Amino acid sequence: MAPQSSFQGSRSSSKSRGRRRTCFCEERPALRTSSTAENPGRRFWGCVNYQIGKGCNYFSWAEPEGQDPQIERLKNKASSLKQELQKAERKFALALAIGILGWTMAGLLLYDRLN
């Protein structure tokens, strides 16, 4: 699935009091996640037909502009923990490969001594 962007069309409004039940295409908006540098990871409601050529460019942020700072801290912490987990997984895979190689070499040496 392609990353979603936070394109804002001419008929859209991020200051609306609430999300519309339908977009300008009379379809139910889809909850998406922004992948832009200005709003990475920020959720928004957009037209379900966006990026398939016939979207109406409906757009509305899912959360208010001044989001709770605790939420931002938690998002940053989750991202940091995800990076740490990925490093640990790489280290584990390397250790596993070295262990398998070591046991294989030990088995071959033992086999050679017995023959």
What does this structure look like?
Keywords: Coiled coil, Membrane, Metal-binding, Transmembrane, Transmembrane helix, Zinc, Zinc-finger. This is GRF-type domain-containing protein. InterPro entries: Znf_GRF. One of its GO terms (molecular function) is zinc ion binding. The chain is mostly helical and 115 residues long. It folds into 2 domains: 67 residues, no CATH class; 47 residues. Helix content is 40%, strand content 10%. The chain contains 1 helix and 3 strands. The chain has a 3-stranded antiparallel β-sheet, with no helix packed on it. The protein is elongated. The protein starts with 29 loop residues before the first strand and ends with a helix.
* Total number of helices: 1
Secondary-structure-based class equals: mainly alpha
Overall domain count: 2
Strand content: 5-15%
Helix content: 40-55%
Average predicted local confidence, pLDDT = 79
Record the strand order, biggest sheet: 1-2-3
How many individual β-strands? 3
What general form does the structure show?
Answer: elongated
Question: In oligomeric terms, what are we looking at?
Answer: single chain
Helix-strand string: EEEH
Radius of gyration: 25 Å
Low-confidence segments, given as residue ranges, are: 1-17
Produce the secondary structure layout:
Elements: E1 30-33, E2 43-46, E3 59-61, H1 69-114
Antiparallel strand pairs: 1-2, 2-3
Keywords:
115 residues; mainly alpha; 2 domains; three-stranded antiparallel β-sheet; 10% strand; disordered N terminus; coiled coil
